[in-house]
Structure formats: C-alpha cells, structure tokens
Amino acid sequence: MEYGFCGRSLTITFVIFTYLGTWIGGGTIVGLVGNAYLDGASQYWIFGISCVAGVLFAMFFITRIRRLQVTGIADMLSLRFPEYKEFIRVPATLGLLIRNVTVVGMNFAAMSYMFTYFAGIDHNLATLLSLFLVVAYTVASGLWGVVVTDVLQGFIQTAGMLFLFFSALKNSGGLGSTLDFYERTDQLAAVSLIPSQASAPTILGFLFLFGLFFLMGDQSDWERIYSCKTDKTAFWGYLIPQSITLLLLLLPAFTGVLLRTLTNDVSDGYVLYWFVSQMLSPQMTIFVILVIISSVLSSADSFMVASGVMFSGDIFHRFINPEAGDRELIFWTRVVAILAGGIGYAFAINMLDIMQLWSVGIGIAAVILLPAYFSAWFSRRVNTQGALAGMGTGIVYCGGLVLTGASFSVGRVLLGFGLNVLATVVISLSTPPPAPEHVARTYYWAPHFHQAENPPDPSGQS
Questions:
Q1: Three-state SS for 74?
Q2: Rounded-to-integer distance, Cα 244 and Cα 237, Å
Q3: Is there a domain that residue 459 lies in?
Q4: 403 burial class (0-12, 13-18, 19+ CB within 10 angstroms)?
Q5: Domain count for the chain
Q6: Residue 184 to residues 101, 179, 188: CA-CA distances in angstroms?
Q7: Which domain holds residue 58?
Q8: Do the domain assignments include residue 456?
Q9: How far is residue 403's CA from residue 459's CA, in Å, rounded to a whole number?
Q10: Is residue 108 part of a domain?
Q11: Residue 79 in contact with residue 68, Cβ under 8 Å?
Q12: What's the CA gap between 317 and 221, in Å, rounded?
C-alpha cells in the first residue's frame, strides 16, 4: 500500500505537483518545441487536447472512480466484465502497458537527443544512458519517491519553460520582429493556434482520438486518484494542474515558433539544444539541461511505477500467485518497472520521432481499450464476450500494423477503433445479456453513484 499508493494519504499539494511533473515530461517539451518549429503553434493542440479532455474526465468520472474503490482501469473493467475469472484484465493491462512504455520511450528519446548533441555519442548509447539514469532511482522508493521528487522537478521544469520562452523571444527580436518574419515569408498562419487548411484534418483527427483517450485517463492518473486522502483532494488535485498545464503548454509551442525565426537548418529533434548551446551562456545551458533531465525523470518514473503496479496487481496477484504478500508484490512491481524502462528503450531506438512515439502509444491503447471502457460506464447490453471480442480484434489489428511496418496514422487508428466497436456490438447482441448486478457496478446512472457529486461536497471527507 505504501509503495504503490502512498498509504492512500496524498494531500493536494503533492497531488498537484506530481501531476504537473508527470504530464509535462522532457519528451513533451522537446517534441512540442520541435513540432511547432516545423509546423507552427497549432501543434499545441496535439498535447493541449489532453488537458481539455482531462477537465471533462474530472467533472464526469473522478468521484465515481473513487466510489468504485479501484486502483486502475483494468480493475474497473473487471467489475463490469467479470466472467472467465476476470480475464479482461489481461488485454486491458496489455493496452495500458504499451501506452506507458511509449511515454517512457519518448522521454528517453528526448534525453538521448541531448546526450547525442552535447556529448557527440551514438544515439543508441545515449538512449541506454537515459535508461540507466531513470531506472536507477525509480525502483528505489515507489510512488512516494515519485511524488516527493516530482514536487521539486515540477518547480524546476516550470521555471525552465518560462526561461526558454523569454530567452527565445529576446533572441528573436521580440514579438514585432517575429510577426514581421512570418509575414515576410508568407507563413503567418504558423503563429496561430488555429490549424492551417493543410494540417486541419490531421489536427482534428488527433483532437478526436486523443480527446476520447483522455476521457479514460492514464493508469498513473487512476493510481493517484485512488491514493488521495479525500474526494476533494482527488478532484481539485487533478483539475487544478490540468488548467495550469493547458497554459504551460503554450510556452514550448511558441518557443518553437520563435526558434524558426533564428534558423531553419536544424533538425526538429535538436533545435532546442542548438538554441541553448548557441544563444545562451554556459551557465544557462547547464540550467536547461537540468530542466530537461528533471522533466524526463518526473514523467518517465511515474509511468514506470504505474506499469509495475498494474502487473503486480492485475496479473501476478490475480492469476499467478493470489496468496502473494506485500513484499512479493513490491518485488514484482520493481521488476516490471525495470522491464517497462527496457521496453521503452526499445521503442526509443526504433522510433526516433518523439511525436510518433506519443501517437503510437495512444493509438494502440485507444484501439484496444476505449470501446470496452465506455461500454462499462454507459451500456447495459455489452457483455464480457463482446468486450473481449472487441479487445481481441483491436489487439490483432494493431499487431498486424506493427508486423507489416504500417504507420499508426489517425485514419488507421480510427479504423481499428471502429472494428473493435463492430466486434463488441455483434458478439454482445448474439450472446446473452450481462447480469444486471454486473451492469449496476459501473453503470454511470446506477443508484450508488447518486451521491458522487462533481465537484465534491466541500464538507465531505470520503
């Protein structure tokens, strides 16, 4: 309980800063700066939509999740689809683990770009160094260690993003010079948050897909919701940093726009490091390096610990050794946290593009999980057979894309999502309906949720 869930005693200060540290990682900063440098400020929405969806997730689901007393998404699905000895935990955990390790991988990629640029070492070796650095302290102390260090890292990364933005603004000659540059080069649309006509379909596809995914939330979010001391802490501790993150993400987006006025000859993965090495003093360069390292650590460690907690609780304790004690579960949590780092490393050396890692992880998780997740909340007719058939279809589809080397474009991900829905509906309608008591456990309008107020009652302590 202490290792994975902080004894369910997290207070609002810890919760706010650990979310800030987790949601804006080094991969987010480096990836968003690079994408905005290439394609303009509208790239902000690829990450910003997660915050908009997160606000809706808080308003509609957090207090209900607290009523369920579950530690994660697989836990919740097993309440609604319990047949076959809760086997639904297996595909659910698989989808969530893939999402987690790709986030770990994108943070390793961000740090490896830094090592490669400044030290001139091979990319694979740089990624391996990133793996060792993150693993070295992640497994030592569990969620408490992650949360406490995230408070400091959250301060450092916020200060660093502000510093980078204003430094880029100063070196670009200010707002007037920046607008003049983009007007002179006929690229004024790049400074707008509204997507250009060319990029609008892709951005809108990302908005739809990522928006749906973050209405489910990440496993690490669910673990923090469970770990909070009260409903109030869980709700406001989630909603406040979502609002802050929505604003903070503007900084790397417009930093990328500003850097375009200084160069167009640098790769998007290296442009941030080019800027700090060429335009800033050695002392400030060291500060930015510390910012990136802090951001990588604060995000990657959360997703690694979440992966370990998922495996130990949803797979090992459920299917392998139901009699396992806390010490054995902590051991397997640490082992799988290390394995998650190793798999993240494999993703990072095979997919150099940070944004590709981001979209692949969300795409696979969305195809496998989302229809079952929304069915658990809102459907009285979908049964375990249908949910498993849909998830199996999603796994086979995503496996086919991986084996054939096909890209996880928005269109392909939406097709996989649609095939999952089709299989879920067809199998559910051709088999007996679920037991009413199973439906009632998670059905959004079930009587036991009537007191689940959003926002929570200020006097409530549940």
A1: helix
A2: 11
A3: no
A4: exposed
A5: 1
A6: 43, 8, 8
A7: 2-449
A8: no
A9: 54
A10: yes
A11: yes
A12: 21
